[in-house]
Amino acid sequence: MKTAIFEKAGLMTVEEADKPTLQADDDVIIKVVRACVCGSDLWSYSHGDDKAAHSDNSGHEALGIIEEVGSAITTVKPGDFVIVPFTHGCGECDACRSGFDGTCDNHQGFTNWSSGFQAEYIRFHYANWALIKIPGQPSDYSEGMIKSLLTLADVMPTGYHAARVADVKRGDKVVVIGDGAVGQCAVIAAKMLGASQIVLMSRHEDRQQMALESGATAVVAERGEEGIAKVREILGGGADAALECVGSEGAIEQALGVLHNGGRIGFVGLPHYNSRPLGSTFAQNIIIGGGSASVTTYDKQILLKAVLDGNINPGRVFTDTYQLADVNQAYQDMADRKTIKSMLVVAE
Amino acid sequence: MKTAIFEKAGLMTVEEADKPTLQADDDVIIKVVRACVCGSDLWSYSHGDDKAAHSDNSGHEALGIIEEVGSAITTVKPGDFVIVPFTHGCGECDACRSGFDGTCDNHQGFTNWSSGFQAEYIRFHYANWALIKIPGQPSDYSEGMIKSLLTLADVMPTGYHAARVADVKRGDKVVVIGDGAVGQCAVIAAKMLGASQIVLMSRHEDRQQMALESGATAVVAERGEEGIAKVREILGGGADAALECVGSEGAIEQALGVLHNGGRIGFVGLPHYNSRPLGSTFAQNIIIGGGSASVTTYDKQILLKAVLDGNINPGRVFTDTYQLADVNQAYQDMADRKTIKSMLVVAE
Predict the structure, then answer these.
(1) For the residues B228-239, what does the mean pLDDT come to?
(2) Per-residue model confidence as pLDDT tens digits over A293-323
(3) Which of A87-101, B102-116, B222-236 is least confident?
(4) Number of domains in chain B
(5) Which residues of chain B form beta strands (DSSP E)?
(6) Would you call A110 an interface residue with chain B, using a CB distance cutoff of 8 Å?
(7) Residue B212: which CATH number?
(8) A111 — contact with chain B (CB < 8 Å)?
(9) Which of A337, B263, B337, B348 has a CA that sits 20 to 30 A from residue B253's CA?
(10) B346: distance to nearest CA of chain A, Å?
(11) Are residues A225 and A271 in the same domain?
C-alpha cells in the first residue's frame, strides 16, 4: 500500500509499505477514503520540530471503510463507513462517561492519540467504542458532505470543545481567537450553542468571510490592546466567553483581555504560554478549561446529526483537495496559507 | 469609638479613634454588632507580611446596623440590620450581572475590598447595592443564628464560590481541600448543590467531625500521593470536582491528583502556586476557576434564605467568641488553631 512519509522538514514523500495487520483483539484495519492535513502536522513540516527524518506521517483524521476487525470488536463490521477520530476513548472510564474521551483515563497520552492516517490502510487501536459509524457508503454523499464528515474526525469537535468547556450558553457574547480550521469550527459551535454575538479575530479577508457565513456577527483585524478595545466597543463591554484556538502567548492574552471579570476561556491549541501561572486568573475570576476534544462523544451526541441534517457546514474549511500522491503540495499550500485546510483523496 | 489596631506581628491592640463620617454620596456609616477574624488577617499577624506597624486592622466581615446614609443611597436606611460583605459590587456591570460581584468590573482590586471592620463604627463605600438586609433586628435572633448570618459576609459565600465555579452538580463526587472555615463552608455548599459524595482532606479530628455533621461523607487524613490514593479508593475512581480552599502548592497538586480527566477545580484561597503554568492542565482536560466570592449575589439569591430557614448552619465555624477588647486573644487562638474562627462581639 501507499503511505505518506515525513522525509524531513519541508518534504513529505509517498512510499510503498506493508499493509497493517491486526495486532490486538480490539484493533481494526481501515481502508482510508479521505485523510487530511492538520495544523499540528505543520509543526514538524515547517519548523523541523523533534520529529525523526524518514518517519511515519502524523496524520490523524480520516474517513474510511472497515476492512477487518479484531475478535473483541462488537460495534463495527467490515464494510462499515466510519469517522476515524484522532483519539481512542474507552467509553467506560470516569473521563469518558463525563464526556471527556479526548483524555480517556484508561488510554492516556500517546495511547489515546492517532497517527499515520495519511495512508491507504491504517490500524486503529482501542477501536471498539471510539469509531463513529456513518449511515450508508461514501458514494451516498456529495463531496461537500464528505468534507463536513471528515471535519468530525478532529477540527469540528475541537472547535466544539472550546465552546463547551467555556460553557457557551444562549445569549452569550463570544470571541473566537484564531481563524484557522479550528477557529472556524469554534464559530460554528458558538452559534450552535446559542451565542448572541460572535466576534472572530482575523486579519485574512477570505477567513473573515467564511466565519461571517458560519455565524460570526463581526470580525476584528486588530491585535493586542487595539484589538481588545475594538472587541469591547463592538460588544458594548466585555465578552462572556473567549475561545482560544491558537495556543500562543498573544492568543491567551487576547482572550483574557476581551473578557469581563467572571468570564470563561476554552482553549484547544496546545498551550505555549508557560510564563503565566495557573492562579494568575484569580483577580479576574476567570474560569478556564481546555484539552483534547471529545470527538466520539460530540459526534455521537450532536455533531454527526447536525452535519447530516445540513444544519452546519464545517467542510468549507477544506479549501483545496489533493491526491495522496501530492501530499507534499497539500502540506506546502497549507503552510503557505494558500489553503485553510488540505483534504487528501485516498480512495473514491 | 474603639477600633482594633495592627500594632505589629503577634500584637493587636484596641484604641480610641474618631468615628468615621460620610465622605461620598454612596457611603454608609454602620454601627458594628459582630465582626470576626479571617484566615487572611493572620498573614500579617503570624508572619509579619508587609503590613505597616500601628496600622488599621484588616477585618472585613461584619453584621451591623445602618447609622447614617449618603444622599445617593436608596436601598437601606438608618436602623436596618445588614450583612456587611468584604466586597462592594456595583450590581450593574457585566461581572456583577453575570454573578461575579466579588470582582466587579467597576470597582477593581482594593476599591472592591473592605478593611477596618474590627471597630465600633465603619464607613462602607460603594454601598448602594452591596449590602444585604436582614429582616428584623439582632435581638430577634439566637446567638447561633447570628453566627451563621455573620458567615454570610465572607466564608460561606467563599465556600459556595468554590463549588459554583467548579460547577458542582447533583450526583457529583467532590473533594474539599482545606478544613478551615472556608473548607467547612465548601462542604456545606457541595451538599447544597447535590453532591453524592463529599470527601474532606483533614488531619484534625474536631474539624473532621464538624464536616461530617455538615454533609461530608468521608474524611481523609493522609496527604500527597497517599492521600490521593485513599480518596480514589473511597470514590471508586477520580473525583468530578475538587474545591481548593487553601492556596498552597500542595493543595493544588492534591486537587489535580484526585480528579479524573475532565474534572473541575474551584479555588478560593489566594493562589501561591506560581510554579505551575496556566496551560499545564491541558493533558488532564481540567476546567479551573477561582477568585473572590460573589457575596452579595449568593446571599441575596440563596444563602440568606438557607440560613434563615435553618437549612444550613455555617455558624458552627465560630468555635470561640471574644469581646472587641480581647481582639489579640481572638487572633492568637486562631493562629494557634485553638479555634477554627474567632467571632468578635462589638455591640449587643
Answers:
(1) 97
(2) 999 999 999 999 999 999 999 999 999 999 9
(3) B102-116
(4) 2
(5) 2-8, 11-16, 28-36, 55-56, 62-69, 81-84, 121-124, 132-134, 173-177, 197-201, 218-220, 239-244, 259-267, 287-290, 318-323, 341-345
(6) no
(7) 3.40.50.720
(8) no
(9) B337
(10) 31
(11) yes
